[in-house]
Amino acid sequence: MADVQSLRNGLGVVFVALVVTACSASEGETCGDTPECSTGLTCHQGLCHDPATFCRQSEAHKARCERDGLCKLMAEICAAGSEDDCKGSRRCKEHGHCTFAGGCCSRDGLCRSEEEDALTHVYRLSEPARRVAAIDTLNGLFDSSLAQDSGDRGGPHVAAVIEDIAKPLAKAYLQGDLPATSQTKALHLMAKCRHGDTRKALIEAVKTFKINDQAAGAHEAAIGAALVAIADLREQGAADPVFRLFTTLRASSRTAQVQGFSHAVRKAVMALVTPAWEDRLIHMIGQPVAPHSDIKRWRDEVFWQITAARALGKLGSPKALEPLMKIVLSPLREDIAPAAIEALVMLGKPAAELATDVLSGDAQELVSYAAEQHRQAVGQSLAAALGRSADSQRITSAAIVLAHIGRADSTEAVLDALGKTDAIGKGRIAVHLPKLPPSAEVLDAFKATYEQSPLDLSISAQHHGVAALIRVIPEFLDPSLTPWLIERAAGLAGNDTANAPFREPALAVAMQLMTNDQAGEVHKLGELITPEKWQGDHRLAVRLLSTCEQKVDCYLQQLREATPKDKGSFKLLKAATMAGLLAKPKDRPAILKALTIAPSPTLRRVLATALDRLSPRGDAPLAKQLEQTLRKLGAIDDPFLSAVVGRLRARVDG
User: Fold this and answer.
1) In terms of pLDDT, which residue wins out, 539 or 28?
2) Which of 435, 275, 250, 269 has the alpha carbon at shortest distance from 341?
3) 353 in helix, strand or coil?
4) Which residues pair with 72 in a beta bridge?
5) pLDDT at residue 532 above 70?
6) Distance between CA 15 and CA 8 in Å, rounded?
7) Residue 350 phi, psi dihedral angles, 5° rounding
8) Using a CB cutoff of 8 Å and minimum separation of 24, what contacts does 520-529 make?
9) Which of 319, 394, 336, 397 is nearest to 364 (CA)?
10) For 303-353, what is each residue's pLDDT tens digit?
């Protein structure tokens, strides 16, 4: 009986073993409710895997192991298996964040759940049922991380997210099988990343984009964001599609007006401009413009020609000299003229020589062209030409070009032009006199023009009468103008209401330029104006002057210590102005460094003006440094700042 029982027991063991074998799956085999995976294996997405090695072997997940060290498959997610694994990982060391079951490594002390980890949602991009939600979540995680880093795309939180999502997001986009809405959101997110791994996808998006005014909306906004990213990345591979888009986009279209779309196109053109475009750009700025005939066509031409003119300036195109000068000389193109002047500044000495010939009348063809354009403008009843002679208009325009280029050898010609044009021309030239190298002659000419000009003289569309002259006085960075300005403003005849448009800006300018010994005189002018409009700023200015006295670095320290809430404060404006007017040529490196941290465009312009005034003979290396700084700040498209760069170069050879 014992033998029989032993036999039965043996058969039972064999039977159980067979059953267990039949119900267990090996690594790589299908699993589900039954069979279960063999001991030590885990069922993941329908297959049995070794949780200790799966994450490092899977193409879809091994990137995470490169960041998370010895990661393991736990609860369907690849994560660090222990606190030591997490803290020893590259992801923790480089980005300050990784998660594991039960804890985390994080620079901000917050342990994120798997749902808060970008990689969790990156994995879901390959799952059709979850990828739409994954893209939405990744957008939210990016924005949240960017906010944590105060908008700094290189900050530790957002940098970690960008590192995780850029490449897989681009791959998902290029596969082209995302729903249209998600495809648009993915494009927008890639644009925000500004990462090299997204380049191919961004270029493909612009290359395949077709203008459709009937459906202009979210996708056009995403393309606009992609264009800005391409410009910031300086992705030359996008040059051809960007130029095609530029030459076919109409500023009057609905597409152009979607969330700054036309501005994005212009930014991309300026970043990627190449000599291969030169002839086409010159052709574009030569097209006729008729402001009163077809308003939509006129808007299109203004957009194309402003962009083309600036691009030609950046190219330094000698072939564009006369076409650009023709824009400046035509009253029909007064909206395009500032861009053409900016381009001529970039062309430097040759442009100054041509403007001098136009001013003297030696450039016969351009003189005749200016007269014909003036005749056409009068025939169309354009305000820019009415009541003015063709010669006055030509002389004014040429002198403004020379003043903008700002070479010392042009000063005499510009000042001479003041005596050859009409009152409007004098006022418009005087606005640009601060761009010439500092001299007593220039200062005297400015003051004389101001004193001789009627208060309501039509100088600028932005400011009433001689207020246009008052507002450029700070560009001289010369406190000797303060008592003169106070005397002129305080001595105005008439009632206070009529004088307010001139006294109020005069007081603001006087406070900006005043030295400590001038504070009392400025206060007397202030007594003619509502106290709430000036007393607080006056007290701030006096306190700052008492603290810093004549010390340039003390004023620059105010900029270094500025907080975001100080961004538009008068104190910072005063500090930047005082640093500029007290600075000597040896202080230019410190001024440039301060410009890199200046919290507003206004402050950058004040500091750039200081560099301009401190370099009467130009400075090519400084121009290069300033240009690089502006590019890093995203301020290279500011016409005021780019003109300073141009003048620093244009003055060098003489």
Assistant:
1) 539
2) 435
3) helix
4) 79
5) yes
6) 10
7) -60, -35
8) 521/482, 521/483, 521/486, 522/482, 522/486, 524/486, 524/490, 525/486, 525/489, 525/490, 528/490, 528/496, 528/503, 529/500, 529/503, 529/504
9) 394
10) 999 999 999 999 999 999 999 999 999 999 999 999 999 999 999 999 999
Residue 53, classed as helix, strand or coil, is: coil
For residue range 622-643, list pLDDT tens digits in order: 999 999 999 988 898 899 999 9
How far apart, in whole angstroms, are the C-alpha atoms of residue 331 and residue 333?
Answer: 5
CB atoms within 10 A of CB 350: 13
CA distance 104 to 560: 35
Residues paired with 74 in a beta bridge: 77
Cβ(474)–Cβ(606) below 8 Å: yes
| Per-residue pLDDT at 544 | 96
Residue 22 has pLDDT above 60, yes or no: no
Helix (H, G, I), strand (E, B) or coil at 309: helix
Q: What angle do CA 313, 316, 322 make, to 5 degrees?
A: 70
pLDDT for position 438: 96
Q: How far apart are CA 619 and CA 586, in angstroms?
A: 13
Any residues with CB less than 8 A from the CB of 240 and at least 6 apart, and which? none
What are the distances in angstroms from CA 426 to CA 9, 388, 402, 430? 117, 12, 14, 6
* Structure tokens belonging to residue 470: 């008052």
The CA distances from residue 291 to 40, 327, 336, in Å, are 80, 14, 12
Q: Which of 164, 235, 232 is nearest to 201 (CA)?
A: 235
What is the DSSP secondary structure assignment for residue 198, as one 8-state letter? Answer: G
pLDDT surpassing 50 at residue 14: no
Helix or strand or coil: residue 600?
Answer: coil
SS (H, E, C) 164-192: HHHHHHHHHHHHCCCCHHHHHHHHHHHHH
Its pTM surpasses 0.85: no
In angstroms, rounded to a whole number, what is the distance separating the alpha carbons of residues 609 and 111?
48
DSSP 71: E
541 contacts 519 by C-beta, under 8 angstroms: yes
How far apart are alpha carbons 19 and 318 in whole angstroms?
A: 88
**Nearest Cα residue to 385 out of 287, 292, 322:** 292
Give me the residue label for tokens 């004040």: 606
In sequence order, which residues have a C-beta less than 8 Å from that of residue 627 and are 6 or more positions away? 636, 645
Tokens of 488: 């002129």
Q: Which tokens is 556 given?
A: 């620059």
Q: Where are the domains of the chain?
A: 21-50, 120-185, 273-471, 478-540, 550-654
- 98: β partners: 105
pLDDT for 87 beyond 80: no
SS3 state at 74: strand
Hey, what amino acid is at 15? Answer: F
Q: How many angstroms separate the CA atoms of 576 and 590, rounded?
A: 12
What residues does 73 pair with on adjacent strands? 78
pLDDT tens digits along 369-416: 999 999 999 998 888 888 999 999 999 999 999 999 999 999 999 999
